[in-house]
Amino acid sequence: MFWVSWLIHIVEALYGIKICQAKGITDPGVQFQWFVQTLLFGYASFGLLVSYKPAAKKQY
User: Any alpha helices (H) in the chain, and if so which ranges?
Assistant: First the structure.
């Protein structure tokens, strides 16, 4: 069970990077921080990322 838990966290963290890109978070440093945070805290961090709504870009 220990290794299955780690595998789930790793997959979740990798998917978190994909969500970062979809939400417009393009800075590799910030993406890495989300990866590490999701890897360590799991769904608690992943839920925050999923619920994040980026500010709309202004068009002139």
Answer: 2-22, 28-41, 43-51
Name the token pair of 32: 């890495």
Q: What is the pLDDT of residue 20?
A: 92
Rounded Cα–Cα distance for residues 32 and 14 (Å): 10
**Please, what's the largest Cα pairwise distance for the chain?**
54
Give me 28's structure tokens: 């590799």
| Residue pLDDT, tens place only, 11-60 | 999 999 999 999 888 899 999 999 999 999 888 888 988 898 888 777 77
Q: Is the Cα dihedral 22, 25, 27, 30 positive or negative?
A: negative
Kindly list the domain boundaries of the chain, sorted by start residue: 2-51
